[in-house]
Please model this.
Amino acid sequence: GKNRFRIFSELLNAESHENYAMVEELSLAIERNQLSLAVQPIYSSEDYRLVKGEALVRWHHPQFGSVSPEVFIPLAEKHGLIQQIGNWVLAESLKKLPHWIDVFGNDFQLSINKSPFEFYDHDDCMLLLKHLLHENGLSGYNLIIEITEHSLLEHTDVTERILASYSALGVKIAIDDFGTGYSSLSYLKRYVVNILKIDRLFVAEMTANSIEYQLCKGIINLAKSIGVQVVAEGVEDDSQLALLLSMGCEFYQGYFFSKPVSVAEFGHLPGRFNHV
Ligand code: C2E
Ligand code: CA
Ligand code: CA
Ligand code: CA
Model:
């Protein structure tokens, strides 16, 4: 009835006010120094060397506390703030990258997440990227751009051009959350792809001979047969690691090895994981 409608619309209103307040605060987060980076190490199966890292943005607000990127990234995408945040992440990451190359070796690569919404401003993005690489004395070789499988299927020609322009700089392309998008794999032929990241949901639910087990095995075999690296995400225990190792997975990321750590801590991580 009428009353129920009123309550419902008040609820909706309260929600949009809250969102509005959050968007407003998010738009000020950079100038107020509320954003920071966390970095999670990625290890090679060969010798358990720390060979890559993934940069993950953090937002700490004085009243809201720590807001998950699962909450504020979609909000930023919706309200036109993702470009600004993406540029901040890129600038901060590339500032630190030369030091991490010194510490972890010339083949160290840092992964950065890109929202498909950032593609709308791709030309500006490329200019900034070139500028930042130059300013920090870097080549594209040490940088990986992660895009989700989902975002690949939307614009095809544009996407092709964008991915090619990263490749031209030596920047590697990783498909994030691999296996969760539509199961059309035709883009692997169409686009330059260097790395597949197996979504952590598959790893979490993997037990011997489960569907997830077969999926992981399939992805790893596919990657190997087309000469693409494969990273398992969300590895939390040694039984998952053992299964993935038996399938020949080369790279590992997850709480079993390390949670994401602060930028300051990352440079102090041991260059090799002590596997027992
Ligand atoms: P993602 O790109 O799939 O990042 C991996 C997420 O899994 C991270 O969550 C990481 O902390 C978490 N994780 C890593 N290992 C484990 C594990 O062993 N177990 C479990 N349960 N979780 C693990 P986080 O940092 O909260 O980020 C969530 C998502 O937010 C990211 O998912 C990514 O989609 C987005 N995001 C984070 N930083 C950025 C950014 O700078 N730009 C953009 N566009 N998106 C970002
Ligand atoms: Ca990612
Ligand atoms: Ca992922
Ligand atoms: Ca994800």
